[in-house]
Amino acid sequence: MLTRRELSAKMQYKRANLLEAGRYLFLENGLQNTSVDAIVRRANVAKGTFYLYFHDKDALLNEIVYDINRSVLLKAYRKAYALETGDYTARFIYMIDDIINHFAEKPRELALIRKNFSWPLLKERITSVGEDLELTEVLNSLAKGLCIEDINLDEAKNVIYATVEMCFSLCYSCIINKQPSDMETMKPTLYLIIRKVLG
Amino acid sequence: MLTRRELSAKMQYKRANLLEAGRYLFLENGLQNTSVDAIVRRANVAKGTFYLYFHDKDALLNEIVYDINRSVLLKAYRKAYALETGDYTARFIYMIDDIINHFAEKPRELALIRKNFSWPLLKERITSVGEDLELTEVLNSLAKGLCIEDINLDEAKNVIYATVEMCFSLCYSCIINKQPSDMETMKPTLYLIIRKVLG
Amino acid sequence: MLTRRELSAKMQYKRANLLEAGRYLFLENGLQNTSVDAIVRRANVAKGTFYLYFHDKDALLNEIVYDINRSVLLKAYRKAYALETGDYTARFIYMIDDIINHFAEKPRELALIRKNFSWPLLKERITSVGEDLELTEVLNSLAKGLCIEDINLDEAKNVIYATVEMCFSLCYSCIINKQPSDMETMKPTLYLIIRKVLG
Amino acid sequence: MLTRRELSAKMQYKRANLLEAGRYLFLENGLQNTSVDAIVRRANVAKGTFYLYFHDKDALLNEIVYDINRSVLLKAYRKAYALETGDYTARFIYMIDDIINHFAEKPRELALIRKNFSWPLLKERITSVGEDLELTEVLNSLAKGLCIEDINLDEAKNVIYATVEMCFSLCYSCIINKQPSDMETMKPTLYLIIRKVLG
DNA sequence: TATGAATGAGTATTCATTCAT
DNA sequence: GATGAATGAATACTCATTCAT
């Protein structure tokens, strides 16, 4: 597969078409119910062309899932740090709240990333040379800001990771399954927990 | 399909064979790579017989996943409460530790339940009339023991749920993906978090 | 299989249940979509019992199809010959009209017998010793009444048969398929043809 | 699926292979006893290729049944109208006779089209834009030639349709079931009826 | 780079029938 | 006669991927 910068404008266009077609169909019908055939039809591209741009169906999915994760995280982070007031914990909760609200409005995105989320994938992309400095920066910044006694940076990163994971898990079960309660009911408890952890 | 108590001894036996065959193969090869054919072959039973006992492949999977969850939880809870010393938090952490150790030894079980876990399914079974009082009791007992200021029982249950979810999530990513760190490295941080939440 | 007169009252009852269940389900869902399982469930009878009364699924179907044919024909014939006025042709057309009206109201019966009608079956039953004298009598009577020059009884029977077949065929295509026209539109043309043939 | 005219020569060839394989096997073993598997094996084509050319098994059957109907009708019509002598009725009977003789020699074709004949299918194909003008022309010509007092063109078409249906029905029961008599015995009576109807 | 015809492995499920009890 | 658990053969259809053009 070619890397992005080698692609001509026309190729960029085809690639983008495939991504948008995949995103639409995966979100609409799920992974199992979306065939490569449907994707190329929607992207107005020949069957074989798909494999010129993506190694296989999973590769396309991974890219889409990553894009969703990335944009949701970045958007929430930026909004939280654009706030003029608020301490670290308040900003963190504001960020989580934004993420929750996003998924509450787009539950299909949540369903897709939750069932197919792959942390190694995320990690790999973040640490690829020169790639996604932005996202790396966000995670570092969150870890550095954390004030817990006798904690080093790696441990801080783990705390952030654990907390975010918990939020995503709860999002999924509360929004998708309404279990153990709906999201709005869960929110105060969740924020109480976060305050205890980060405080 | 028949309910469990209507089954004769011979039928119980066949059913048990199917469950064990399914468990073995699902754990060994995953859901997608396990055919009904393989299951009945291993269970020494005719193809049609499978559908006498389970509505479809998913029904079998659900039962297996539920059984795993249940037994892991109960075992850990019992061990923790058999301790003579220790306060609530200590027992809770002991319980989580037991769960983690279980899955560290049987990562395939973890992979299976994480990809196919359905909380509504669990909920449904727990609350069915007269069914699984034991598991219900465990969850209630954990919630009741929780001492956080100004918290009611439902909120307490949510805290328990959130905490357990976080543990399961971390188990999955640390044990299966070794991300963001391996399980042993994550443990102290996790227990620190738990202490902060429950304390 | 047992013949009818050997059956006890209880057995008659079971047999009748199976017939009614089969009739209902065949008419409702068609042959392919009706399983023996569904039939025995509806008849409140064990699976094996079915095969005590009918050699197989087809045997049940044949009996049902025969019953429908028989009763429709007899009913129409009797009504036509109960008329006080009218010559042979008029009565014949009256009879056909009654059959058509019957099937217009019960198109599922028409679909069932048309797809699964077996003339040899009918013949076999009619000519079985002492069996269905009534139906034989009807066909004979229709043939004998026919006045066409230089025609013998066998030929007369063939004319009757051909005419009835044509009516059934047209019923099927006009009522079920609305082709080449609907039944009401076809009727005058059909009766014109009958008059030409029998006149 | 592609329409016929879009197919390359190679594809035409594969399609033809599938049609011939289907025809052979359907005629030899009937619809139920012919698997798609057997068809593709005989056509020397991969399983998936079948579904490139036909939507499903039924679609293939429909095409075959239509082809048989079409060719038998056209052949008979042409032979009848190639006659130098004979009035309308004589030609019509000649045509029917040709059809009967055809099916007498190929009873399996008769069995296949009779059980699976779908007049709407025929109609649909005939009336598709620019499609099968030839067959339409035949039916129109037969209807126009009919001389019955006070009859309009639509009614004439219905008479033709009813007559042809009767012939096909009798073919089926006389040739396949030998009921109510064999075909040769039935012929004179049938032609007598036709003369009465068309005369 | 782009195409799209061809491939063929892969599988869940149904159901008529039997037979031990 | 009655049961109903057990059988296992039988089959249409999908779809990711390839490769000749």
Account of the protein in words:
The structure is a homotetramer of 199-residue chains. Chain A has 199 residues and is mainly α. Chain A folds into 2 domains: 8-54, Arc Repressor Mutant, subunit A; 57-198, Tetracycline Repressor, domain 2 (Orthogonal Bundle). In chain A, 76% of the residues lie in helices and 0% in strands. Chain A has helices at residues 9-29, 36-43, 47-53, 57-82, 88-105, 107-116, 119-127, 133-145, 153-176, 183-198. The radius of gyration of chain A is 19 Å and the shape is globular. The model of chain A has no long low-confidence stretch (mean pLDDT 90). Chain A binds chain B through residues 115, 118-120, 123, 148, 154-155, 157-159, 161-163, 165-166, 168-170, 173, 177, 179-181, 185-186, 188-190, 192-193, 196-197, 199, and chain B through 115, 118-120, 123, 148, 154-155, 157-159, 161-163, 165-166, 168-170, 173, 177, 179-181, 185-186, 188-190, 192-193, 196-197, 199. Chain A binds a DNA duplex (21 and 21 nucleotides) through residues 8, 10-11, 14, 35-37, 40, 45-52, 56-57.
How would you concisely characterize the structure shown here?
Chain A is mostly helical and 199 residues long. In chain A, 76% of the residues lie in helices and 0% in strands.
List low-confidence stretches of chain A: none
Q: Work out the largest interface and the residue count of each chain.
A: A-B, 34 and 34 residues
Task: Give the N-to-C terminal Cα separation of chain A.
Answer: 46 Å
- Kindly give the count of domains of chain A: 2
Rg calculated over all Cα atoms of chain A: 19 Å
Please count the beta strands of chain A (DSSP E, at least 2 residues each). Answer: 0
Overall pLDDT confidence of chain A: 90
The proportion of strand residues of chain A reads under 5%
**Major beta sheet of chain A, specifics?**
none
The CATH architecture of the largest domain in chain A would be Orthogonal Bundle
